[in-house]
Design a protein that fits this description.
Strand content: 5-15%
Number of strands: 3
Structural class: mainly alpha
Number of helices: 6
Order of helices and strands: HHHEHHEHE
Radius of gyration: 21 Å
Distance between the termini: 44 Å
Length: 128
Amino acid sequence: MKPKHLLLTILISFAFLTQCDRKVNHPDEQDMAAFIDALLSKMTLDEKIGQLNLLPGYEDIVTGQAVATEIGRKVKEGKVGAMLNVKSVGKIRELQQVAVEESRLKIPMIFGMDVIHGYKTVFRSHWH
């Protein structure tokens, strides 16, 4: 690609992205604070504690049906806020669906991987 075309593509992309950002209706700080206060006032103490729960992805979540497990029941009850190391996108989708459709307050979960220096890193020695 010629430098002129590359520069033009970058400028058009930047203009498009800035226009897209303007169309999004961002809540202001007062609206967000009011929303959070209202949500917290609806939560039971168990649900507040549950949002602080970060559970590891046990084997039954990785290999079994996520919704039918003890963890699935806890998610439905609002007693889990986040999970680590759930490797299957399908399992993440199942658990998130339970959280946002079947739990009382419909609060989405946070999913993460406990990763240091990359995911499934394999070190190979060059020395034979």
